[in-house]
Amino acid sequence: MAFQDATRQNIRSIGGMDYSAGGQTSLTLPKVGYLTRLHLHVTGTMTVTPGTGSATLAEKAPWNILRRVRFEANSGISIFNTSGWGAYLQDVCSKYQKEHEDGQVTSAFGAQVYAAAAASGANAWEFGFAIPIVPNERDIAGIMLLQSEGLLAQLVIEWQTAGGATQDFPVVLTGNATAAFTGRMTVYLESFTVPAMAADQPPIDTMYQTLETVRPIGGTGAVEFELLNANTYVRIIHSVEIADVLNTDAVDSLQFRYNVTETPYDIERKMKLQLQRHQYGRDLPKGVFTWEFFDQGYVNYGGGRDLVDATALAELDSIVNIASGTSLGSGTSRIRTVTQQFVRLGGAGA
Predict the structure, then answer these.
(1) How far apart are CA 302 and CA 296, in angstroms?
(2) Domain boundaries, the chain
(3) Contact present, 35 and 144 (Cβ < 8 Å)
(4) Is domain 215-344 in CATH 2.60.120.730, yes or no?
(5) What is the pTM of this model?
(6) How many angstroms separate the CA atoms of 34 and 204, rounded?
(7) Contacting residues for 286 by C-beta, under 8 A, at least 6 apart
(8) What is the rounded CA–CA span in Å between residue 302 and residue 298?
(9) Are 96 and 244 in contact (CB under 8 A)?
(10) d(CA 150, CA 193)
(11) CATH number at 3-198
């Protein structure tokens, strides 16, 4: 009997964390079962007082009320570490989605699981996403045995202040306008029972890791991201911000290159947008471009054919070309990059 036949799925709440403006909260996971995914759901009230100023919803809201989302093992190993915006992007890219009026799901259903506004007064906010410990419901590479001896697994949330002068805050304020948020994140754990027979227990020699980095754009032309010559890459997500604003049109083209001379992907912006709509069944948010290596007809459910094993490569680069004449501002243009990869524990590669 294999693991899939000898186990049972469980999804249950393990508690939550109250919003702490500019602060940090954490939750230790129970030591039970095999962990595959965490489902996070935030509910609260954003109270806006415009005064003689103004208050508008930021482009990356409500997700950026989470300044950082981290899932760590033993207080040091980062399995998941992104901004709230990056967490949302990886969640969007993990499923094929048929586009409806609100861009994600039917409006009637969407109103029950997603809401955010910045009108004067009290605004109900509600949103959520999943943290993947394994890439999908079929493949279990990355599965984590929570009851391993000596394992301490923690979810850590760094909360953003409700309002501020830039797009880094969920509500962008001018003049004497203010914003205050009260709310709570509820955490659901998706896990599987431990099979009675040792022979049916799955291998736990691989980690599915999601990390986000930010690189400033110093000028127009090629912005190169050198990827580590280790691990096996599943997906790369770039989010382009020009002068603090998400921007699609500033990108001329994108290339993916390895071993200096080999370029399997070289795609102009408009064709990349068309391909992304074909892959995901919807348009991705403004300024977002991806390399999807785990897609053979259904995103995030491919085989190993196009996964990028970086351990065998001398050089690995993702290149975003910024159009000439783009006004970059002063230190306000950047590219956020979320990478998802398999990491072989105890050695390089996957």
Answers:
(1) 5
(2) 3-198, 215-344
(3) yes
(4) yes
(5) 0.94
(6) 10
(7) 59, 246, 247, 248
(8) 7
(9) no
(10) 19
(11) 2.70.9.30
Write out pLDDT tens, residues 203-253. 999 999 999 999 999 999 999 999 988 899 999 999 999 999 999 999 999
Q: Buried (b) or exposed (e) across 62-92, using 16+ Cβ within 10 A?
A: bbbbbbbbbbbbeeeeebbbbbbbbbbbbbb
- Residue ranges for the chain with pLDDT beneath 70: 1, 75, 98-112, 346-350
* Token couple for 224: 């190169």
